[in-house]
Amino acid sequence: MTSRKALIAVVVALLWSAAAFAAPAAAPTPGPQPTGALAGILAKLPNDDLAVATAAYQDLVKLGPQGVKDLAALIVEPGAIDDSKARTAFHGLAMYVSRPGADAERKMFSETVARLLGGKAPNSVKSFYLTQLRLAGLPDAAPAIGALLASDELCDYAAQTLVSIGPDAAAPALRQALAGAKGRCRLTIIQNLGVVRDVQAGPELMKIVGDADRDVRLTALWALANIGDAAATDAILKAVGAESVYERAKGADAALLLAQRLAEAKKAKEAEQIYRTLWKTRTGEKDRHIRCAAVRGLAMLLGAGAMDDLLAAMKDADPQIRAAAAQAALAMPGEEITQKWVRELPSLAPAARGEVLAMVARRGGPAAEAAVLDAVKDKDDGVRLAAINAAASLSNEKLVPALIALLSSPDKAEQGAAQAALGRMPGEKATAAVAVEISSASQEARIKYKLIEILSARGARGRVDVILAAASDADVVVRTAALEAVAVLGSEKNIPALVGLLAKAPEGEKPAVEKALGAVCSRAAGKDAAADLMAKAMPGADAATQAALVRTLARIGGAKALAAVRASAKAPEAEIQDAAIRALAAWPDGAAAPDLLELAKSAAKPAHQVLALRGYVRLAGENLKMLEQAMAAAKRPDDKQMVLGAVGGLKSAKALALVVPLMADEGLKEAAAATAVKIAKSLPGSANAEVKAAMEKVVAASKNNGTRMAAEEILKKAK
Known about the structure:
Blueprint: H1 2-22, E1 29-30, H2 36-42, H3 50-62, H4 64-73, E2 81-82, H5 84-97, H6 103-117, H7 123-136, H8 142-146, H9 155-165, H10 167-178, H11 183-195, H12 202-208, H13 214-227, H14 233-240, H15 245-264, H16 268-281, H17 288-302, H18 307-314, H19 319-330, H20 335-344, H21 350-363, H22 366-375, H23 381-391, H24 399-406, H25 412-424, H26 428-439, H27 445-457, H28 464-470, H29 476-489, H30 495-504, H31 510-522, H32 527-537, H33 543-556, H34 559-568, H35 574-585, H36 593-602, H37 606-620, H38 624-633, H39 637-647, H40 653-659, H41 669-681, H42 688-701, H43 705-718
Parallel strand pairs: 1-2
Helix pairs in contact: 3-5, 4-6, 5-7, 6-7, 7-9, 9-10, 9-11, 10-11, 11-13, 12-13, 13-15, 14-15, 15-16, 15-17, 16-17, 17-19, 18-19, 19-21, 20-21, 20-22, 21-22, 21-23, 22-23, 23-25, 24-25, 24-26, 25-27, 26-27, 26-28, 27-29, 28-29, 29-31, 30-31, 30-32, 31-33, 32-33, 32-34, 33-34, 33-35, 34-35, ...
């Protein structure tokens, strides 16, 4: 509720804001009016027609500098006077002269507006001129713009405009203004000298790094760093050691930025000095991020030459620093680098060994694979677990046997990690290696079932034959796991094998085979072919197998499956017959409706009549004719009430006519009356005659006060 109120408040505020611009309470005072040719041009602007607008700006340009000045004279200080038309035209002109190929027009506009900056216009208007020069200003305008850097009101506008024109023009103007600048203007100029990376400003900025004003000296340090002035190294590193947490953080940012700029300028030695100083001196817990950045910087700067530095970082007690070193090492290309790390593994503490194993595994290559294979046998639990997890990213099938051996580890964590790694390890060779172990006669059953789960996790559809063979294993756990995997991976070509398994399966295992067979059949593209396969398997099969096949046929659907199920509904074996009738009752489409209606009328067992009737009503949906037939076939009051429930969902006078006669049946009277009221409420006024007659019968027949009152209310409306 609170968020809704907040949203409403925002919408209302926006509406008021829009109203303030679109329809002020008092009409604004007209501003200065254009005359002559300018008046005619402005009458066409703004204009949604691009051709008209373009022609207007062409005419405006033809008026030359005087036209620009006359247009500028129409722009006044914001307030009660409406100069929006002139401002819009001025902005449009700035965009128009900035188009490609309009160099002369742009030069005329830039020079004219630059001269206007020295005029008597209010600062609020000059700030508008400056924003337009960001679009169309040229380097020649820089001196006029620079002259405004001493104004507290215009300094930011002027600096941003100079930067947009370009560093070559901006730098001299900013340098010239720095000497006499004060307060906020001085801070702005220093910052923008850094933005344009003015090398010549370095000596002046160096004089400022000791300024008493904290913001000034920190901004100067940042500017020197972004310029890449190596002379500022000592001053910036001194700031990194400041007592103030804020200054220390800003100093560290400046130091890292300076090192980056020096590296870009091919001044590797100077950059290296900064990174090494930060690494050696910033040893406090709160400065770990600086050391992390320093070690990453050294790696980017020196490549393989930073190996000793990264190794030192991997021996650090801080896991964040080790993580930074591992990340930096990961980015270094080449098998030789991997080999170096593998050689250093014995010198590292267990935690670091695990982290390096993860890193080299992500790098890949023969050295990484050999190291991981060796480490899965390490004496340290943490290293073994890290190696197992690392193996998941390698595609060397030689790792598979070692991981399989760990599936029987007494350590549950190792078991789970090994199984997960085998499930994720990339490559078909790994899949083949797992499949071979499933087929091995010497492999333990408790491992085989895990291997089957692994093949399922790998989506190994090409190894279903191996899994199907395991479905005949001597161990029930293996057989069950195999059937669950076939349910996930199998295809219609496996149907004959599953049908064969169904016939041979012990009674308690038939449901698992049936489930797998049903899952495969539901995905079969050729449903009639699948139905044929199962229909051919039914003669000669025992009753339990035939019943399972019938249930599976219902999942397939289609004409051939229906024919087989229809025939099974007449089987002498009760189990087969029951399965067939239940399958028909759950049939997915209306093709089974005639069979269900006949069974509802004539099935030998009352339970089958009820099943068939319910299935028929389900298929009937809103088909009134089918519901009439269902009502006629219903033999028990409960069945008729079930049909009534379906009829009550219809909204037609014919449905009402079907219900009314049932009020004569004492056992159905109240249910029929309530259903009639329900239908009557949904009917339009055009059915008043039928509704009136029906409600009169409800009032006469029902003894339920609520039903009668509802009927009387409907009668009042009908009259």
